[in-house]
Amino acid sequence: MAGKKRARREPELEFRNTALSDALQTQDMAAVAFALRHGPTVVPLLRAGARDDPRDAGEVWTYRDPESGDLALLLFSDAAHKPESLPPTVALQSPAWLRAFLGRHREAVTTVFFDIAGPHPMQASPDDLIAALDA
Questions:
Q1: Which residues of 43-62 are buried (b: 16+ CB within 10 A; e: fewer)?
Q2: Whole-angstrom distance, CA of residue 75 vs CA of residue 111
Q3: Residues 14-38 pLDDT 10s
Q4: CATH number, position 80
Q5: Which residue segment(s) compose the domain that 103 sits in?
Q6: Does residue 75 form part of some domain?
Q7: Is 12 a member of any domain?
Q8: What ranges make up the beta strands (E) of 34-133?
């Protein structure tokens, strides 16, 4: 087998935050805050970021209520919890990214839903999440 190179397999990126999933199961806001401060969040994207540009995180998909005009940010503890009806692309975003996004869009986003289709949905205001991330 001389001269034969083995293909090196990159470890698969897991699009989940187990601590967030556990916190949502118990509906414990303190545990949700801890999970958000110390782990990633799965975010649906309308457009994926450019692979060659680390500054391009893509375009986040948000939901606008057609009757009220309210804008909601949908976040997931696991990509498997994202409904099929949402755009197929997701990103795994850091706590710093989430804090910056909420700070930049806190006037426009009226609510944030976690795992909206289950198994353990929860909702919070952007201000509550910013306070949790800043704690």
A1: bbbeeeeeeeeeeebbebbb
A2: 11
A3: 899 999 999 999 999 999 999 999 9
A4: 3.40.1350.90
A5: 18-47+58-134
A6: yes
A7: no
A8: 41-47, 59-60, 62-64, 71-75, 90-93, 109-114, 122-124
pLDDT at 43 over 70: yes
The pLDDT assigned to 51 comes to 80
| pLDDT tens string 77-129 | 999 999 999 999 999 999 999 999 999 999 999 999 999 999 999 999 999 99
- Residue 52's identity, in one-letter code, is D
Q: Please say whether the beta carbons of 95 and 133 come within 8 A.
A: yes
Q: Is residue 52 part of a domain?
A: no
Structure-block tokens of residue 88: 């197929």
Cβ neighbourhood burial of 125 (10 Å; 0-12, 13-18, 19+): middle
Specify if 99 maps to a domain.
Answer: yes
Structure tokens at 36: 């958000």
